[in-house]
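protien #1 (seq + structre)
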Amino acid sequence: MSGLVAIIDYGSGNLRSAEKAVARAIADGGISARVVVTSDTEVVRGAERIVLPGVGAFADCMQGLSAIAGMVDVLNDAVRKRGVPFLGICVGMQLMASRGLEHGEHKGLDWIAGDVVRMTPADAALKIPHMGWNTLRAVSPHPVLTHLADTAEPHAYFVHSYCLAAAHRGDVLVETDYGGAFAAVVGRDNMIGTQFHPEKSQAVGLALLQNFVRWRP
């Protein structure tokens, strides 16, 4: 299934919004690829790129993903063993972590060492959940993020109460400040994850998706 971008349907996430955004990125970029929303492990196994969205609580999302027979094994094989490019969005990005600490302790995919922790802004006036547009600050260069350097004060749209506290500074690619810095983008090797929603982040998000579909790590 060369050229296929698989968006995993596991009962969580803005699937149609993500599908439409990736399709637009493909069309606008004149890229030879197609996108499908699927819960079929064989489709995911054969995909050239994989997107994992997510909205809601960490434990519920991990449970939903694990409930699809063989899906976690397929993801580990495709992403960790075969190096298939992977994009996690919002809770989909958080599931890349070792653990989630929302309403107890829950195991994640353990692809990016660290914990998903509740946000605690230094300014008590800042509300949680963190919701709205915030500035992105690149920490490390990355092929999927090249457009950020050409954008004056790039902004993205966030909706979340928890964030990924990476154990290794090198895994943090972009930060955002909301009463303290937190990871807006993490990544390593063939994996990248955004805490914000690229499908809701207008030109910045569309360019990121286009870069991802072109990316050959």
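ok now protien #2
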Amino acid sequence: MSRSDTVLLTQWLDGLTTQQRSSNTIKAYQRDVSQLLVFLQSEKNGIDDLEPHAIENTYYFIQLNREALTRYAGFRMEEGGLAPSSLQRELSAIRHFASWLVEQHILAHNPAQDFTINRPPRPLPSTMDAEIVQQLLDQPAPEDRDEARLWVRDRAMLELLYGSGLRLSELADLTLPMLDLGRKLVTVTGKGRKTRILPIGSKALIALQEWLPHRALWAEEGVLHVFVSERRGESLHPRTIERRVSHQALRAGIAQHLHPHLLRHCFATHLLAGSGDLRAVQELLGHANISTTQIYTHLDFEHLTKVYDQAHPRARK
């Protein structure tokens, strides 16, 4: 075989780049498939410990079949200590690569296509009562002048996280052109580069209108991000946003650990409890599969029981 495994891997990754896949996705795919290649080479050569840099320009992917995948999955979980969820992510990359090998007539079929492992039940996301969220958002401003200004910014972030259900990355990447305050809308680009338009609640609108004049004084020239740091005027790093959310929760006297994604969970749970419209919540969250959204139906048994009692013919007296 004239083409080596490493050349094939490079060609596949180059193709992903032209498809405008994110750099993080491409790096993860390269790492995951390279680990499989190392495993296949070690099996072929009878080597127990083979480093990635020791990969030779030899054709090993021809050995890829269901039996090899089974051995690899066991190796990654037993020797690598990989959790089933992490292994599923690696198998997704391998599945994509094997499909490309089929297209290139390297493999006759994709052995990873229907390959699955047993996964533990998905844990339910944590959430908070609406009253506690109100306690967070309606707390008074700090007496310290500098901290009070930071609270103006942080409150706008908190209102968007809870009021529009933004992901942390979506909030960090938010720029001024994405805001349409006149129509009370915000446009975000989420997972898979999918764009969705979300409503801005009245409380979030007020918080943004109070924050933007401060932002104009803080932001460096050319910076379009909505949320910037007070010192350098640069866009806020996601880790900084996490710290600020946690700080404001502690200031409000909330004992539960608060992080941005928890506010997204609260958004989904409280909206579903108030509306019962699963499809609408799915669209607002940007979930590709409604089964992902359905996890929130388990978080409000009282509401679901009430809906059942009122709606089902065999439940009514």
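DSSP finds 13 helices and three strands in the chain.
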